[in-house]
Amino acid sequence: EIRPESRVILFGDDRLLMEKASRFNRSFFTFGLNPENDLTATDVEDAGDSGISYVLNYEGKTIPVRLNVPGYHNLNNSLAAASVALCMNESFENIKTGLERFKGIKGRLVPDALPGDIILLDDTYNSNPSSLKAALRVAKRIAEAEMRIIVGLGDMLELGDETENSHINAGRMVAEAGAFSFFAIGDHAGLMLKGAVEKGFSPEKAIEVGSNHEMVDKIFSSYLK
């Protein structure tokens, strides 16, 4: 429970969230890309797997920030972290230093450069539809027209009644990302592959595997073709 005198930090770009929050008599601190927020980011530049740069804006003060983690979701995450720090009266300079020192968390969309010009995007820790969408967006941004996107997915857990639709949609997102090949494992592998094929993905390149080792072997054989 939040004390009445406490400030509530909210993602101000989410209209539904702000509409719900407006019913409560609380002091809000908002962040996002909308200039009406208390804390905003401008001049955003996406450098793919190298990260994102932007200018942090608060009460007329600005400071450039260069994140060393990829994806627009990390832009919003960094604004949320900066908002907490500002509400604790931390300086702009210390906030910049802290954000730029962050190197990501293992299993949370951390790029890993492998031999042979391979970039591995590891998003295996507690994956969910939102994180998958972010991962595929980053993969598409990195690959552009020069690299193949090879996707290997396992089951997403704890989705309740949304389990079936979420796994079908996962396959659809893979197809929309322009993947070269798609490998799936787990109880819901068939649903993911079904979603991809329904979205126009080649059935020959939508492959169910029975083990992690089989997935690795087939991914590398797919890449080397």
Question: How is the topology of this model organized?
Answer:
Blueprint: E1 7-11, H1 15-21, E2 27-32, E3 39-46, E4 52-58, E5 61-67, H2 72-87, H3 92-101, E6 110-114, E7 118-122, H4 129-143, E8 150-153, H5 163-176, E9 181-184, H6 189-198, E10 206-208, H7 212-224
Parallel strand pairs: 1-2, 2-3, 8-9, 9-10
Antiparallel strand pairs: 3-4, 4-5, 6-7
Written account of the structure:
It contains seven helices and ten strands. With 225 residues, it is of the alpha/beta class. The strands form three sheets. It has a five-stranded mixed beta sheet, covered by helices on one side.
Q: What's the helical proportion of residues?
A: 25-40%
Indicate the radius of gyration in whole angstroms.
Answer: 20 Å
Number of helices: 7
Strand content: 15-25%
Low-confidence stretches: none
Order of SSEs: EHEEEEHHEEHEHEHEH
Biggest sheet character: 5 strands, mixed
State the shape: globular
What is the structural class? alpha/beta
Sheet with the most strands: spatial strand order: 1-2-3-4-5
Quantity of strands, as a count: 10
Give a short overview.
The protein is of the alpha/beta class. Helix content is 38%, strand content 24%.
Give short descriptive properties of this protein.
single chain; 225 residues; alpha/beta; five-stranded mixed beta sheet; 7 helices; 38% helix; 24% strand; globular
